[in-house]
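Hypothesis: this fold can be encoded by more than one sequence.
Test: take the structure tokens below, design a sequence, compare later.
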């Protein structure tokens, strides 16, 4: 892998995003607005003293899910545009390697994902008073990893789409099942055996488990680092797979 070529790709993508105000707004603002909607859903709930707010659990999980969904959409559509416009084809006529290109895109969108997670977490803590035992820094870490996971899956799925509409159609296949089975709506040990087995290998499940560890413990636990490590390994594996499936252009 050529580090200079990868960084050059990262710089080009970031420069393009800087001039694309709608994409920047989608990345940085939309997760915070969705988080606000979640907060107001539970604003009027009445709880006995000492009982945690529903928002403290659901809102925490949304800090991982919203960036994951948004980065998947933005990345898959942006990469598809690069291919259909011929930009990707022109780049691949240069000495740049496919891995340099994909990891450059991954790094660029990962930087945006980090900014997105910082904004959403700041809104959750400072505006809506998110109250959990763990450190906000650990929440940001897991949220960033999860957003980068969305980037990696978006890059991979873009290779199999011919139009932007097809890219969006990967949402029900790749994203929605993970949201349904990650344990947010139903505890995984209450699912039937087949769904539980599927849930245990889905990337988003490890993210939810990690955030639950943050919520329940003042200090980072071994399980938290294990879940984070698995997520990082999945991200790396998906990026490598995406570089292997990268095509020059969409017919």
């Amino acid at each position: 892998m050529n580090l200079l070529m990868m960084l050059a790709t990262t710089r080009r993508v970031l420069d393009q995003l800087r001039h694309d105000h709608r994409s920047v707004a989608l990345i940085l603002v939309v997760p915070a607005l969705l988080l606000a909607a979640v907060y107001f859903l539970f604003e009027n709930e009445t709880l006995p003293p000492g009982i945690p707010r529903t928002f403290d659990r659901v809102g925490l999980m949304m800090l991982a899910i919203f960036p994951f969904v948004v980065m998947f959409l933005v990345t898959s559509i942006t990469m598809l545009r690069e291919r259909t416009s011929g930009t990707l084809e022109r780049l691949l006529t240069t000495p740049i390697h496919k891995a340099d290109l994909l990891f450059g895109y991954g790094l660029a969108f990962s930087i945006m994902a980090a900014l997105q997670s910082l904004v959403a977490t700041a809104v959750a803590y400072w505006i809506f008073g998110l109250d959990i035992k763990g450190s906000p820094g650990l929440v940001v870490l897991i949220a960033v990893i999860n957003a980068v996971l969305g980037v990696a899956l978006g890059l991979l799925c873009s290779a199999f789409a011919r139009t932007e509409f097809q890219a969006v159609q990967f949402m029900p296949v790749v994203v929605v099942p993970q949201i349904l089975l990650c344990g947010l709506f139903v505890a995984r040990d209450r699912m039937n055996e087949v769904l539980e087995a599927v849930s245990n290998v889905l990337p988003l499940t490890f993210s939810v488990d990690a955030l639950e560890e943050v919520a329940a413990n003042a200090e980072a636990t071994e399980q938290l680092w294990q879940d984070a490590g698995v997520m990082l390994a999945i991200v790396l594996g998906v990026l490598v797979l995406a570089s292997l499936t990268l095509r020059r252009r969409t017919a």
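The longest helix spans residues 54-84. Residues 61 and 118 are 15 Å apart (CA to CA).
Hypothesis status: open.
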